[in-house]
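Ticket #4471: structure output looks truncated?

Reporter: J.K.
Steps to reproduce: submitted the chain below (335 residues) through the standard prediction queue, then opened the result file.
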Amino acid sequence: MTNWLVQDKRFFLLLLLMLIVLGLSLVLGSSSYTLMDYFNLSENESLKRIVFQHRLPRTITALLTGIALPLSGWVLQEFFRNPLAGPSILGVTSSAGLGVAIVIVLGSSLGFGSFIFEPGLLIIGALAGALLAMLLLISIAKQLSSTNAMIIVGFMIATIAGAFIEILQYFSSAKELKSYVLWGFGSLTGLSIKHLIYYAVFVLVGVFFIVKNIPSLIRMQLGELYAQTMGVNLRSLRIQLIIASSILAGVATALVGPIAFIGLAVPHICRMYLKTSNFYQLFAYNMVVGVILMTGFGLLAELFPGGALPINVITALFGAPIVLSIVFLNKNQIS
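Returned output as attached by the reporter:
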């Protein structure tokens, strides 16, 4: 299980790079403070507020998102055995977004009032939508032999979720519409300590379910019959992976927005770079690479000339070429 960790010097270099990027996220921003100012942080109340009230929450949010979305995508790709499987492609993100839209747009009508943006409500809405999408995918996938057909089903789920979102937007007030549009841009900023605690707890639960089931996933690679002979309970495995992927994609979507492509691109990058079937190694690399990229994208969005960009713009510009590369590099395997 851990032999690769002792031998893989690249992983420790990536860990170092991750720490550097996380550190840069704490010291870089739109303000004009110099590096020397940080050595006197305790005496500079203005800089202290910027670091602890804005940059530290942004960095923690990027770290948690960089763990949640790549692991959610990796589990889906391994479970469906398809490199194009990912929360955004299979409609999981869109369905989670529908759950959030119901909470935001219908919140006032249902009497939630000022509690619409309570993290618990947003997370419940997103998890319900993500779980529904995953259950639909699993039930339909049993009837299909083609992975291409499964991708089309996921796209249709996303389309239907998008249609319901547009209906909600059409009948919403200007204030509700603006709230949902701003949420849809995606952002790594603005989360309170309460939000971050919710976020961390749900990510830990999702990671726990994945780590617990890695041995079963390894046996699944040799076929379901072999896995069953080795004592794998396929029904239990399927349920736990649905829960893990839904939790990770749902909580990230609820609190950060519908971040595109990270759940698809990062597992592909790790698999292409490592060229290994060691699931423990892939698990660790997905987390570290995900954190590096999400934190880096957060910095790019923050430091963009002329003002901060929505994080979704950055991830889409990065992710779309990766999706195209997946299609072309796997054109003989995706069928």
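Triage note (M.O.): checked the attachment and the full token line is present. The two ends are 32 Å apart (CA to CA).
Status: closed, working as intended.
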